[in-house]
């Protein structure tokens, strides 16, 4: 092989070798980062919960609000509640609930117990999409919420 061909081959190799990792089989990322919308300071309507793969629709009164100062409050479907909340990025932890003690029909009370359990079983992962919020616990159970519209 003459010196000219060796020089061309080395030059081509030097130019193409840095590109090899970009030619792999993994899907590329556009580099765009989708910003997570804030969850604090917003009145959220609870649309329903999914527990063990079964989705239950929420009573119209079910609400949640988490303020920036760490206060959470709302309505579980029958009774109002308040609690301490910690928000760290997309992780939310809601402490023990303090609730009123009203009695409602059985379906609302069953939903209320399931929602209270879902909100307080540990750290929840928050995912926002437009005007929707989903809180997912470590077992995969989810609380589905929507931004409340002013009345």
Summarize the structure in words.
The protein is an alpha+beta fold. It has a domain at 43-147: Lipocalin (Beta Barrel). 19% of the residues lie in helices and 36% in strands. The protein has an 8-stranded antiparallel β-barrel. The model is unreliable at 4-35 (pLDDT under 50).
Structural class: alpha+beta
| Percent range for β-strand residues | 35-45%
Q: How does the major sheet shape up?
A: 8 strands, antiparallel, barrel
Could you list the spans in which at least 5 consecutive residues all have pLDDT below 50?
A: 4-35
User: Could you name the CATH topology of the domain at 43-147?
Assistant: Lipocalin
CATH architecture of the domain at 43-147: Beta Barrel
Shape: globular
What's the total helix number?
A: 2
Signal peptide: 1-24
Protein name: META domain-containing protein
Keywords: Signal
Pfam families: META
Main attributes?
single chain, 151 residues, alpha+beta, Lipocalin, 10 strands, 36% strand, signal, DUF306_Meta_HslJ, HslJ-like_sf
A few lines on this structure:
With 151 residues, the chain is of the alpha+beta class. The protein has 2 helices and 10 strands; from the N terminus they run αβββββββαβββ.
Q: Helix and strand layout, with pairings?
A:
Blueprint lengths: L2 H14 L26 E9 L2 E4 L5 E4 L4 E5 L4 E9 L2 E4 L3 E2 L6 H15 L3 E6 L2 E5 L5 E6 L4
Pfam family, one: META
Organism: Streptomyces actinomycinicus
Protein name: META domain-containing protein
């Amino acid at each position: 092989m003459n010196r000219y061909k060796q020089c061309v081959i080395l030059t081509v190799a030097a130019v193409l070798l840095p590109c090899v990792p970009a030619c792999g089989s993994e899907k590329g990322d556009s580099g765009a980062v989708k910003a997570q919308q804030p969850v604090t300071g917003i009145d959220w309507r609870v649309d329903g919960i999914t527990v063990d793969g079964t989705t239950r629709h929420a009573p119209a009164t079910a609400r949640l609000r988490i303020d920036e100062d760490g206060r959470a409050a709302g309505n579980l479907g029958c009774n109002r509640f308040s609690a301490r909340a910690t928000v760290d990025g997309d992780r939310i932890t809601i402490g023990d609930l303090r609730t009123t003690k009203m009695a409602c029909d059985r379906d609302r009370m069953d939903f209320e117990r399931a929602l209270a359990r879902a909100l307080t079983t540990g750290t929840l992962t928050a995912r926002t999409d437009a005007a929707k919020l989903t809180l997912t616990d470590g077992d995969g159970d989810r609380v589905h919420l929507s931004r409340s519209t002013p009345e």
